[in-house]
Amino acid sequence: MHTAARKWATSNRPQPMLEQPAMTHQMSPIVLAADHAGLGLKNLLKQKLAEQGYTVLDAGTETDARCDYADFAHQACWKIVAGEAQYGILVCGSGIGMSIAANRHSAIRCALLHDTTGARLARAHNDANMIALGARTTGEEVALDIVKTFLATSYEGGRHDARLAKINPAIISPGEGAVR
Hints:
Blueprint: H1 3-11, E1 30-34, H2 39-51, E2 56-58, H3 69-81, E3 87-92, H4 96-102, E4 110-112, H5 116-124, E5 130-134, H6 140-152, H7 159-167
Parallel strand pairs: 1-2, 1-3, 3-5, 4-5
């Protein structure tokens, strides 16, 4: 096997979240939020993160009673905007509604994730500060691996800085930012 391929293959093997964490973000506070469909997975993630020494802020919900995902997505986003947390994890049935609601906030870059490759690229290339997971579409072990990868990956900067600047300019006029 080629050296680069071997390095990639061994470095990208999923590692269980319970193994020695390789977290690079100095255990920054993390905010979690879920609707009724995501409550169980949110509680599991909350427990595992706390066991690893993270300060976890819970923006709700606390019951499995039917509720609206957007209310809890906004609560989590406001904690990041206020500087109370650096990263956020949102969980609803599919992750779609939470990610859409979160991305309405200009300071939030929320990635809907289904695997560790997406988690790594969301941080490394897009400087994502929030992720959304689907409790009905993502198994617990996969979700744990996604969170571990997301928190262990740093933003690369460089060529990605100019691209990020185009995502959220102060005012976007028709045709601006498009390749001409």
